[in-house]
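Translate sequence into structure tokens.
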Amino acid sequence: MFGYIRTDPAYLYGKDDILYRAFYCGLCKSIGKSCGQRARFALNYDLTFLSAFAHNVCGEDVQIERQRCVMHWFRKRPMAGVDALSVRVAHLNVILTYHKLSDDVLDSGRRRGLRAFFSGAYRRARAAEPEFDRIVAERYGELIRLEREGCDGIDRAADPFGQMLSDL
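Result follows.
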């Protein structure tokens, strides 16, 4: 239930597209600083949207600066500054990714190596945000239980993830 949000640049104003990309790059930098460089591979648009949404709801001003990044080192890009809220979203990103990889291992036995690759970042994120980890683990447990029971209703299967987002 995670990995579905995508931007459609054709429908965004130029400034909004630049702002969204700045949030994306800023979240990548937050992940790298708080959870380690390996964890940057877990970055996704879902949590970028959550970061932009949370900053707006909380009334947090974001400092946008032109900086270099690991992936695009040859040219400076607009990037949201690292702040406490983006670090919390970075921790949530790593926790969600780790639990998704654990679910993939249970479902198909695949991605064990990738889960091990993220285990250090997960430990850091879990130590920083134990409540996030508890909520995600609890709701993923419900989802696993429903899968084992052979739940055929899409709404019933999606409910634990919706509840998780509500709790977070």
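Note: The chain is about 65% helix and 5% strand.
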